[in-house]
Amino acid sequence: MAVQPPRVDRWIRDNTYSSRYPFWTRANVAEVLPEPPSPLGWDLVWEGAAVAGWRDLFVDRLGMLDAELDPDRSEQIGIFGGYAYLGASLFRVWAGRTPGMTPTTIDELYFTDHPDVPPYVAEDWHANAHTTEVMTRYMAWATTDRSNDDLERDRLESRRVVAERPDLDALSENELLERARSLRPLFRRMFHQHINQSIAASFGPGILGALCAAIGRPEVVMHLLAGLGGVDSAAPSFAMWELSRQARQSPGVAAIFDEGPAGLDARLRKSGDGEVAAFVSAFDAFLAEFGSRGPNEWDIAARPWELNPDLALVAIDRMRAAPDGASPMVEHESREAERSKLGAEVRAALGEDAESVALFDIGMANAETFIPGRERSKTSIIRVIHEARLAIEELGNRFAARGVVEDPSHIYLLFLDEIEQLVDGEGGEHQLAGRAAYREWLRTLEPPYIINGQAPPNEAWPLKGAGATEPLAVGDELAGVSGCPGKARGFARVILDPADPTALRPGDVLVAPLTDPSWTPLFVPAVAVVVDTGAMLSHAVIVSRELGIPCVPSVLHATRRIPDGALLEVDGDRGVVTVLSLP
Questions:
Q1: Full-model pTM
Q2: Is the distance from CB of 37 to CB of 84 less than 8 angstroms?
Q3: Four-CA torsion 352, 353, 359, 362, nearest 10 degrees
């Protein structure tokens, strides 16, 4: 069991237990908020902003009744023991009211054969004709409208916020705080759009899955969802590939990379070599476009690529080792051609059934619109979150300079009301060293994957990696979710930190705990990807489909069960990982 936590004067309060919505899970949300959220990150971005936007969508467009959702802490997402959890009970109820779905649709989307998933138990209030009527109209929109004007409006708005960034050095502390605080309405609206795109994106794959099963080719559906194009979250990997070619072809740049990853950005900028300067200029253009992306990017306390450029450079270094023939653009074009060919085959197999052919076209149009739309909506809100982060970062530096906080990063351990008081010259002492120690302690815990009922206190949670796992034998199969199609063999490289992927070689199978944008560039040198968490429309899956990398997410405890160096076969069509040999 975990040791007793450090004493803390204040932290994010847990959600109150509700018998109406007792079932919560880390599935999928572990990709969004993999670490315990910082107090300021939860307070400024999530509580009352993103969570409120999620609630707005459920009431305004998805037909849930206002009275069915908590007005302040809506049950789509909650905090237990310092970690974020997805409200599986609420999603089951909503799915049960949606035409063509059932409560267990949610289980099929997020879980494989996890033994702790509680059975669904219907209650009288679960059925609601109003929600069903609203969802009928919503599904009609999601399967006919390809304009996505609101999505484009948000994209332009996010770029406007960046373009109009004031000189942060010249702002007062009050103005810095107001800069961050003024973006909360955008967080709310853009998160509404992100979840809207995510839900709309689920209908096309469902339609295609049913049609492909009807003609006896269920395995084709994943191929039809690969190589869609226009997926913003794959764009950094394509851009990094081009930078990796520069680094590979320039002796001066390559020599600096060969010295190791520590301090790589600083060493590159110190060089007087012309080719190095050209690489740095191209890298700066990359940071200007993609600098808001990185590990745990939904938390304002995170250090994305603009604030930690070495993290991007180490991913470029891993790509540098790959031959030119491993270009992700070539793989993407191959998947795109395969999708077009298979689409024609499915349409031909449907024959003279005009209704089925029309449904197929609707399913493809939905997938081509909303799967990239999901990633674009995420890109827009992450860009705006980063603008708030930069203002808070400057404020933290000033607080540290005048002794208000010991370390600039401690500003993220404050709640919004505490920062407001400090900026106004009020407020007492805050035990920020204790809060920092408490968050570090939280990071050592293994949060329960599923909570059903009262959440156990986090003092009773096991430490990460402490639980026993059944040893693997040659021939064993590990079940996950069918992510990106294809089959590949390679040696397992278990990477737990994207900042230290130096063991990953071209042709290896990347085995990772989760995959946010700091991980996905590592897909390029890998031959396949296996992930502890994730679902069919998770970030890892969508990006791997664009890069043409077989991917199997939701392989429970993959990073603990698969030994480094094991020879694996990854079957992305079946969602199965087979152990061929052990080290």
A1: 0.94
A2: yes
A3: 20
Decide the pairing of beta strands 477-479 and 83-86: unpaired
Is residue 538 within 8 A of residue 28, CB to CB? The reply is yes
Asked, for residue 46, whether it belongs to a domain, the answer is: no
Q: Per the structure, how many domains does the chain have?
A: 1
Q: Is residue 573 part of a domain?
A: yes
Of 224, 221, 160, 219, residue with least CA distance to 186: 160
d(CA 500, CA 184): 34
- The CATH number given to whatever domain includes residue 486 is 3.50.30.10
Distance CA 400, CA 406 (A): 6
416 CB neighbour count, 10 Å cutoff: 18
Measured torsion, CA atoms of residues 444, 445, 446, 449, in degrees rounded to the nearest 10: -130
Confidence of residue 140 (pLDDT cuts 50, 70, 90): very high
Q: How far is CA 327 from CA 177, 239, 283, 478, in A?
A: 43, 11, 19, 29
Is the CB of residue 298 less than 8 Å from the CB of residue 377?
no
**pLDDT computed for residue 28 by the predictor:** 82
Range of the domain at 540: 477-581
- Asked if residue 198 belongs to a domain, the reply is no
Residue 497 placed within a domain: yes
Q: Cα–Cα distance between 388 and 177 in angstroms, integer? A: 9
pLDDT tens for 80-92 read 999 999 999 999 9
3-state secondary structure 403-461: CCCCCHHHHHHCCHHHHHHHHCCCCCCCCHHHHHHHHHHHHCECCCCEEECCCCCHHHC
Q: Compute the average pLDDT of residues 555-574.
A: 93
Q: Which residue type is seen at 506? A: P
Cα–Cα distance for residue pair 108/28, rounded to 1 Å: 13
The Cα-based distances of 336 to 161, 167, 209, 221 in angstroms read: 34, 43, 19, 14
- Which residues lie across from 428 on neighbouring strands? none
CB-neighbour burial class of residue 484 (10 A; exposed 0-12, middle 13-18, buried 19+): buried
Confidence band, pLDDT 50/70/90 cuts, at residue 468:
low
CA distance 351 to 249: 51
Query: Is the distance from CB of 520 to CB of 539 less than 8 angstroms?
Result: yes
**What does the alpha-carbon distance between residue 94 and residue 74 come to, in Å, rounded to a whole number?**
14
